[in-house]
Amino acid sequence: MAAFWDAVMPYVQVLLPTIVLALLFWFVMRGIFNADRREREAEARADAQYAELLAAAKARRQGSEGAGGAAGPAGPSGPAGPSGSSEGNDGAQAS
């Protein structure tokens, strides 16, 4: 049995560090990919909520214009402004 371990141990000593590093790399990459997936899901939910908010605001605005009230100046108005983006926002999202 000692001859077996004498024959196998050099291979174990050579392969073990590679296996450990591969496992460490796998765990790190799995964590990164899971975090990215969760972030994308959260961003999709936030985008959907924002789209619903804009649709509701647009529906309210169109409903008040159709009710015979003063429509105000022509053109887009509301939280997005005339350019389609919030004023003072350079496109970055706060987290």
Written overview of the protein:
By secondary structure, the chain is mainly α. It has a domain at 1-55. Helices cover 68% and strands 0% of the residues. It has one helix and no strands. The model has no long low-confidence stretch (mean pLDDT 82).
Overview features:
95 residues; mainly alpha; 1 helix; transmembrane helix
Write the layout of secondary structure elements.
Elements: H1 2-66
How many strands, what sense, and barrel or not for the largest sheet?
none
Distance between the termini: 61 Å
Q: Which H/E pattern describes the elements?
A: H
pLDDT average, as an integer?
A: 82
**What is the oligomeric state here?**
single chain
Which class best fits the helix and strand makeup?
mainly alpha
Shape: rod-shaped
Region (Disordered): 61-95
Keywords: Membrane, Transmembrane, Transmembrane helix
Transmembrane segments: 12-33
